[in-house]
Design a protein that fits this description.
The chain is α/β, with parallel strands linked by helices and 493 residues long. It contains 18 helices and 16 strands. The chain has two domains: 198 residues, Alpha-Beta Complex (Maf protein); 190 residues, Rossmann fold (3-Layer(aba) Sandwich). The strands form three sheets. The chain has an eight-stranded mixed beta sheet with strand order 8-7-11-10-9-12-13-16, sandwiched between helices. The protein has a six-stranded mixed beta sheet with strand order 2-1-3-4-5-6, with helices on both faces. It is globular, with a radius of gyration of 25 Å. This is Nicotinate-nucleotide adenylyltransferase.
Length: 493
């Protein structure tokens, strides 16, 4: 089987020579980089109904309506709606039986003359998979990583052609479609940190799985989605916010997970430089955790995120196993305080030098990067099930040569012990709960929030053999936790 990827020229020409495809291109911010490919390869008259740019803000507003920001999802949606509706209004009667119409749009901020701006853009296509079909849509957010404007424009044009080609010829294989988005490019030039499929052609697509694919394929180092399953663009969620993260396996979500997060929220909101009303709370799962048993099990992945969704949590999937890399990622979006909450066992691992051998400066370099932006670690106690003793910040065993470093971070309040935890939950360990679920031991339900138990039973997650009646599930969807947990609201287009 030939696995060679078609060139950008070949993709453009194949679209031009397909008599079913006809539509408009509207591109703002970096020139008409996508449509240029279709003009360049020839036969464009069979594909392009209209090509336009509207760089002046007043002109853009006159066409698409007022928008506070011009490189944002809302502007892209407005562009797609207007251009696609115009195609249908003007052309459906004359050629609708044989033509599948589309509208492609992008709004982009490429590198400016001084190199001071954020280089990113929104790109999308609304299309009919077949003539007279209902609409389908793909929206994505890209970051251009080249160092000069011309290279960024070139990369943007290639991604756009890949998106059009994927929408037309790979819409039945969304995994292949995502993988093809960087054909003839590399992750050194373009990052895609958000993608959303909707409409009739993608009625069976779970956008959470598609977000996972972005990270799994290396198109992005992180992806985010809300409790409702809506894909979120990280910058729009995290921009200028205080951020609190809990990293875990969440297999399954237990009372400890929610108690740890609630206790951390209590402490975080009391910080002088934290705006208690604007704290973004995230549950983070790393790719290393998801791949702990080799290949990613999608059913296991969805079981975790569905139980997190039952608790109203926004989920971050990341490829940042090292905490200093996670801290650097979050710091891209905010200058406000960031906190990570973890158990005492995870804190002990954090001071294991074997994790930092790839850094020239070892553990000192790692901690310098992690704490440089006033990051804080909140630590949840660990119960020794044999002795009943608690491991806390005060009695954590640290290698002698690192003890002074550890104490310095504690004295600086970079590491802080949580105190408002519920001691009744300390005996809960997720590995034990998972074992009880698989064994059919009903005692497992005492260790997880009620709404989590309902979802696990109803859907048979984690090997659960018991099913909850539908009516019971509906009655148990309201989140219950030892602390009130603030969650991100849903973002709608």
């Amino acid at each position: 089987m030939n696995n060679e990827r078609p060139s950008t020229e070949r993709k453009s020409l194949q679209i031009n020579l397909d008599p079913r495809r006809y539509g408009s291109f509207a591109e703002i911010g970096a020139g008409q980089e996508v449509v240029r490919w279709f003009f360049r390869v020839g036969a464009a008259a069979g594909t392009i109904a209209k090509s336009m740019s509207a760089y002046d803000m007043s002109v853009s507003d006159a066409i698409y309506g007022h928008c506070d920001r011009y490189v944002c999802r809302q502007r892209l949606e407005d562009m797609l709606t207007r251009e696609h509706d115009l195609n249908l209004e003007r052309l459906r009667e004359s050629r609708g039986d044989s033509t599948a119409f589309f509208a492609f749009a992008d709004t982009v901020s490429a590198r400016n003359f001084h190199g001071t701006n954020e280089c990113h853009g929104w790109m999308g296509i609304r299309f009919q998979a077949h003539p007279r079909d209902e609409d389908s849509q793909i929206i994505l957010h890209v970051r251009m990583l080249d160092n000069d404007n011309a290279a960024q424009q070139e990369a943007l044009g290639i991604v756009g052609v890949n998106l059009l080609y994927g929408a037309f010829f790979l819409n039945h294989e969304p995994d292949q479609l995502i993988e093809s988005l960087l054909d003839n490019l590399s992750t050194l030039r373009i990052e895609i940190d958000m993608i959303e499929f909707s409409g009739i052609a993608f009625r069976h697509v779970d956008n959470r799985v598609m977000s996972l694919r972005l990270v799994q394929l290396g198109l992005s180092n992180a992806a985010m989605f809300s409790a409702s399953g809506e894909v979120l663009q990280p910058a729009e969620v995290l921009y200028k916010k205080n951020i609190l993260v809990e990293r875990g396996s969440f297999r399954p979500v237990t009372h400890v997970n929610m108690d740890m997060l609630g206790a951390a929220q209590d402490s975080f909101r009391e910080e002088d430089d934290v705006d208690a009303e604007h704290v973004v709370t995230l549950a983070e799962i790393t790719m290393r955790n998801l791949q702990a048993n080799g290949e990613i099990d999608l059913r296991d992945f969805l079981a975790r995120v569905d139980t997190l969704a039952a608790c109203g949590m926004t989920v971050l999937i990341s490829d940042y196993f090292e905490y200093y890399r996670l801290a650097a990622y979050l710091s891209q979006y905010t200058k406000k305080k960031i906190a990570i909450t973890m158990g005492a066992g995870s804190l002990h691992e954090l001071f294991d030098e074997k994790y930092y051998t790839e850094l020239d400066g070892g553990i000192l370099e790692s901690f310098g990067r992690m704490f440089k932006n006033d990051l804080k670690l909140y630590v949840y106690p660990l119960l020794n099930q044999s002795t009943g003793e608690l491991t806390t910040v005060d009695n954590l065993e640290i290698a002698p040569e690192l003890r002074k470093l550890y104490q310095y971070l504690v004295d600086k309040r970079c590491i802080e012990q949580l105190t408002s935890y519920n001691s009744e939950h300390l005996a809960t360990f997720s590995r034990d709960v998972l074992r009880m679920i698989k064994a059919g031991d009903s005692e497992w339900t005492k260790h997880v929030p009620a709404e989590v138990a309902a979802v696990i039973k109803h859907r048979g997650f984690f090997g659960c053999k018991h099913q909850a009646p539908e009516s019971r599930l509906a009655a148990m969807v309201a989140p219950v936790a030892s602390h009130p947990i603030s969650v991100m609201p849903s973002f709608t287009s």
